[in-house]
Design a protein that fits this description.
Helix content: 25-40%
CATH topology: Rossmann fold
Number of domains: 1
Number of helices: 8
Order of helices and strands: EEEHEEEHHHHEHEHEEH
Radius of gyration: 19 Å
Largest sheet: 6 strands, mixed
């Protein structure tokens, strides 16, 4: 399989296994995947199929057992500076003793090379983008879950990455908050010309957000279906989800996932 010329991240023949208590568990077994610049790719699949493991390997945070990992046209040997990972558990990724302002500024200050004035200006810009102006001096424990996740996103974007990797970032919030975060993320993706790889267990979320949805098989995970999503923009939480094309994408993905689990198709659920 040839690599796509505009791929910013990619894996070839990727395998990952874990050994414990004298046994070996294969999480990923021969994954081939390219992430094109400017795309929004969601990765779905059964629990335990290796979605998060794949994302961590693409971020350079975990090593593969075998296979190749590429950043642009080069094999990746360390986490790329323009790739940022947003963790699922935002309550653990934010510093509870730092204010919103100091949390967002943390990456810029750690990286160095910017004046205090420039750090402050970038921090204000990011806080404004995620619609948290007025909450700069609040601490994470004084914010709702959705607001905390906005802080985590602002901190990730402050360093101006070109690729954002997100591991089920909205799974711990209520439905209305989740819808708001989805709209925010799509807006930031367009405005900042980001490439997003988004792991989710929710097929509907993956279709609504994405330009492409990749479904993995149950463990050991491989690519079961790689589905381009061609839904018009702007998208609407009600109207888009009622479109025949949306429902067709949903049926195709669920049919694949249900078949992999031996459930016999969507009508059996």
């Amino acid at each position: 399989m040839n690599r796509r010329s505009n791929a910013v991240l990619g894996v070839r023949g990727l395998r990952k296994s874990f050994s414990a208590a004298g046994a070996t568990t294969v999480a990923l077994n021969g994954v081939d995947l390219d992430i094109e610049a400017g795309s929004f790719v969601s990765i779905v699949g059964p629990s335990g199929c290796g979605k998060s493991t794949l994302l961590q390997i693409m971020a350079g945070l975990a090593s593969a057992t075998s296979g190749d990992v590429f950043h642009k046209q080069s094999r990746m040997h360390e986490p790329p500076p323009d790739v940022v990972y947003v963790f699922q558990q935002y309550t653990r990724s934010l510093f509870p003793w730092k204010t919103v302002e100091r949390n967002v500024a943390f990456g810029l200050e750690s990286k160095g090379g910017m004046s205090r004035a420039d750090v402050a200006a970038r921090t204000r810009e990011m806080i404004g983008l995620v619609k948290l102006t007025g909450f700069e001096r609040h601490y994470p424990w004084q914010l709702s879950g959705g607001m905390q996740q906005r802080v985590a996103i602002a901190r990730a974007l402050a360093c101006r990455p070109s690729v954002l990797l997100m591991d089920e970032p909205f799974s711990a919030v209520d439905a209305l908050t989740r819808a708001g975060l989805q709209e925010l993320l799509r807006s930031l993706w367009r405005e900042m010309n980001l490439t997003v790889v988004f792991v989710t267990h929710d097929v509907d979320e993956g279709i609504y957000l994405s330009t492409r949805v990749v479904a993995l098989t149950r463990a050991p995970g491989t690519v079961a279906i790689d589905l381009p999503v061609e839904l018009r923009d702007p998208r609407d939480q009600i109207a888009t989800r009622a479109l025949p094309a949306y429902l067709d994408y949903r049926a195709r993905l669920l049919a694949q996932l249900f078949a992999d689990e031996g459930l016999g198709g969507p009508e059996a659920a």
